[in-house]
Design goal:
The protein is an alpha+beta fold. It is built from 14 helices and 22 strands. It has 3 domains: 2-125 and 379-511, no CATH class; 130-206, PDZ domain (Pdz3 Domain, Roll), CATH 2.30.42; 212-367, PDZ domain (Pdz3 Domain, Roll).
């Protein structure tokens, strides 16, 4: 059922992109009097079709694109077009008419992106709260002044809408970053490139733990900065962030006040160490379930066990277990845990698996930890005309950065491994849809611009290739010869097929 749901989301996502692109070609063809024979969403056998005013409108089986078939649109065709019919033929249109018909598709993609941006901005855009995860000491982000739980709001005095904007900045300098910490907003100098900042930010994903502890028997407790009630706005990781002598309050499973705790610490590890000395461990160290026939299952680990140390290293979070697993070269590792209040020792041999082309070690356990979900902020509507201005700027800015991205791909500044095919697009479309309509439509606008840019590349068989032939025709004061055009079409098709195969190969490499 999930597969069918994802296919449905993929079609819902791709449909408007294809429709607008082909509609651009169609409307300009009609404007210049060219006869449109077929307007199809999808390729292959036609599922639904009907005729109207000499045009067959169809929905075809393979939803990975679409096409507009115009009368006389094949310059290599040997069929003679009667003089009386030439005014309806694409090939016999003037150079500027053909130019606008060809460029109509990419222009429609840019227009779709503008429309999406406008309605999102004018309606009061919902944007994801960009909260930082655990920022370790001795990292450049920590040295610059960023801390665990900081909410990023602006860069270079521009609103930061999503993390991908950093990657799109490429080598451009991010001079300043504005963040919110608790109720205080502050701007600090940063001076990192967009690429560098993006890579560093994605290392520290915001998996912030709720302030829930367990004792050695598995009983639940809540940690709060307030004696009056459980204040779970402050995650366990944020509570451990500020080095200090901190007064905290412990509440029971039913959120009844139990006692006051005074903790002095100089590091995050010391904070958790002092909690452990009093018999309290982070809840994410409790095992929720064990995968059948996994190394953990074979070693005798059970749901409800509470991890304490792994390979002699004391654990303070489930993510620290993952880090230790990847570092440790020993085949068999001793694990210390609590089971029903008693210490238990087990020996376990991690299993190596490949994920996204990289090898990593697992033992096959799942955490009981509770983490904060993604929060969305609703921005105030700037008004009708400012929304138009902002939508134009965002469309233009994204288009320029997309062209720059393709330039870096051609010059090998960016690896081709970053290119995704239909499976990658389907995955991000499904993920964004599950995150909400705003991320879904933002991604649609971004991909629509990408589609427009790709089609403008001067590769024969793409719209950009047709535009290139028209420009050559203007320069040479005559059409390109049939032989040269045939060779160019074959080369262009080969390049396109290689790109498609490469993108699909990347998709499968990420799976296996």
């Amino acid at each position: 059922m999930k597969v069918l749901e994802k296919i449905g989301i993929f079609i819902l996502f791709l449909g408007p992109l294809v429709f607008f692109h082909e509609l651009g070609h169609y409307l300009f063809a009609r404007l210049f009097g060219v006869r449109v024979e077929v307007f199809s969403l999808g390729f292959g056998p036609k599922i639904i079709k009907y005729m109207r005013n000499g045009t067959e409108y169809a929905v075809s089986l393979i939803p990975l694109g679409g096409y507009v078939k115009m009368f006389g649109d094949d310059p290599l065709s040997k069929d003679e077009i009667p003089i009386s019919e030439r005014k309806y033929s694409f090939t016999f249109q003037g150079k500027w008419a053909r130019f606008w018909i060809v460029i109509g598709g990419p222009l429609a993609n840019f227009l779709l992106a503008f429309i999406i941006f406008f309605f999102l901005i004018f309606g009061g855009e919902k944007v994801p709260e960009i909260k930082l995860g655990v920022i370790p000491k001795n990292t450049i982000l920590f040295e610059k002044g960023l801390r665990t739980g900081d909410i990023l709001e602006k860069y270079n005095d521009r609103r930061l809408l999503h993390m991908g904007e950093m990657a799109m900045e490429g080598n451009n300098n991010i001079g300043t970053i504005t963040y919110k910490r608790f109720d205080v907003t502050k701007t600090i100098p940063l001076n990192l490139s967009g690429d560098e900042l993006f890579k560093k930010l994605t290392q520290y994903l915001p998996l912030l733990r709720k302030p829930i502890l367990v004792d050695r028997s598995g009983k639940r407790f809540f940690l709060s900065i307030s004696r009056e009630k459980v204040n779970d706005e402050y995650s366990l990781d944020i509570l451990a962030e500020e080095v200090a002598t901190k007064k905290l309050y412990l509440f029971g499973e039913k959120k009844e006040f139990l006692k006051e705790m005074l903790i002095s610490y100089k590091s995050r590890d010391e904070f958790f160490s002092k909690l452990a000395a009093q018999g309290y461990l982070p809840m994410d160290l409790e095992i929720k379930s064990v995968k059948m026939n996994s190394p953990a299952d074979k070693a005798g680990l059970k749901a409800g066990d509470i991890l304490y140390s792994f390979g002699g290293k004391i654990l303070y979070s489930f993510s620290s277990l993952r880090d230790v697993l990847q570092e440790d070269k020993v085949k068999e590792i001793e694990i210390k845990l609590w089971r029903n209040g008693s210490q238990v020792y087990k020996k376990i041999t991690p299993e190596s698996i490949k994920e996204n082309g990289k090898e990593r070690k697992i033992i096959g356990i799942y955490t009981s930890g509770e983490f904060y979900g993604l929060n969305f902020l609703t921005l105030d509507s700037p008004g009708f005309f400012p929304a138009i201005s902002q939508a134009v700027f965002r469309t233009w800015d994204t288009t320029i950065k997309t062209f720059d991205g393709f330039k870096k791909l051609i010059t090998a500044e960016v690896s081709f491994k970053n290119i995704g095919g239909p499976l990658a697009i389907g995955k991000v479309a499904s993920d964004s849809f599950n995150s909400g309509l705003t991320p879904f439509f933002l991604l649609m606008a971004f991909i629509s611009i990408n589609l427009g840019v790709i089609n403008l590349l001067p590769i024969p068989v793409l719209d950009g290739g047709h535009i290139m032939f028209i420009i050559l025709e203007i320069v040479n004061r005559g059409p390109v010869s049939r032989k040269k055009m045939e060779i160019a079409q074959q080369v262009g098709l080969s390049i396109l097929l290689l790109l498609m195969v490469g993108a699909i190969f990347n998709d499968f490499s990420r799976l296996f």
